[in-house]
Specification:
Blueprint: E1 2-8, E2 15-21, H1 22-41, H2 43-55, H3 62-75, H4 77-81, H5 90-107, H6 111-137, H7 139-144, H8 153-177, E3 182-185, E4 188-191, E5 194-197, H9 205-222, H10 226-257, H11 264-293
Antiparallel strand pairs: 1-2, 3-4, 4-5
Helix pairs in contact: 1-6, 5-6, 8-10, 9-10, 9-11, 10-11
């Protein structure tokens, strides 16, 4: 059922008639109601997440994940509009799962469960209002939302120290290969006349997370087959770790060449900013290389996960 609405054009006696579908209005109201309900239900979780994104540099990229996911969904509006929305009560089951996850998080004082329940709740709302056919087109976008959630504290702690030591050892090895004498003692790199500590903030976790988020976004936008996207997304982990090693090596070399005129902290910060363009270039080059292996979509046997 459709309804005609008269819209004034500003010219006396003239008006433009726009046909508005009542079904569209009900869908819009449904999305608005569910969105407001999610915000109201998870406003404490959202506040905590924003505080983490704002205060913790390791996860500052998280505040960009949601808007970028919305942009990705907007890019697919043509494909989504071509499919009829078939609301499914199966989405309500996901909402129930999200509620149970959140209850466990509250009972056991585990904040990460509450945060992940927010993502599951978003999945449930999308599935309930859109149905399987539309949700299937947005699987990649919905999975992308997981990147906005910080790692649980125990997992992050178990990763931090090994990454610190690996970054120190790998950087010392690269320095030795380049002709600079460097030895490691735990997470400290000892060079001539100075000790350079690979602190917790320099373990590369921050850079890995940021570059993985960038890699997943580029993989999705590429429109390439699923296997190719997975390779690009997986390579972003290696590129993130490698970029952190390059930053440490550059800091060590500059501090040896200019031991007094340039501070190590300044070099470290500048090198960190330069690593993102480098990572972007490497990701683009990887996509170009994979694209050059085959010509035409028929060689892949599919169009990949949208």
């Amino acid at each position: 059922m459709a309804k005609e609405v008269a819209v004034e054009t500003g010219v006396p006696g003239e008006a433009t008639r726009v046909v508005v579908s009542s079904g569209f209005l009900w869908q819009a109201l449904g999305w608005l109601a569910c969105g407001l309900a999610l915000i109201y239900t998870y406003h404490m979780v959202l506040r905590d997440l924003f505080a983490i994104w704002w205060n913790n540099q390791d996860y500052s990229y998280g505040m960009l994940v949601g808007p970028f996911a919305a942009y990705l969904a907007w890019r697919k509006r043509g494909d989504l509009n071509g499919l009829k929305a078939t609301p499914s009560w199966a989405g309500a089951l996901l909402l129930l799962v999200a509620a149970l996850i959140r209850v466990l998080g509250v009972v056991y004082y585990y904040d990460s469960l509450e945060r992940y329940s927010l993502i599951v709740a978003v999945w449930g709302v999308v599935f309930m209002l859109s149905g399987w056919r539309r949700t299937r087109l947005m699987i990649g976008i919905l999975l992308f939302l997981v990147l906005m959630i910080p790692l649980p504290g125990r997992i992050e702690s178990s990763i931090t120290l090994p990454l610190q030591r690996f970054a120190a050892q790998a950087s010392a090895w690269v320095l030795n290969v380049m002709g600079w004498e460097a030895i490691t003692h735990g997470n400290i790199i000892r060079m001539y006349g100075q000790d350079m500590e690979v602190a917790a903030a320099c373990n590369g976790l921050r850079m890995v997370f940021a570059i993985v988020t960038l890699g997943c976004a580029l993989a999705y936008l590429s429109g390439r087959p699923t296997w190719e996207r997975l390779i690009v997304a997986g390579s972003s982990v290696v590129i993130g770790i490698g970029a952190n090693i390059i930053r440490i090596v550059a800091t060590g070399i500059v501090s040896q060449i200019f031991p007094e005129s340039i501070s190590t902290a300044s070099v470290h910060d500048v090198a960190g900013w330069l690593m993102m363009p480098l990572a972007l270039m490497l990701l683009w080059w990887g996509q170009y290389f994979l694209r050059s292996l085959f010509v035409g979509d028929s060689a892949y046997g599919g169009t990949g996960l949208a």
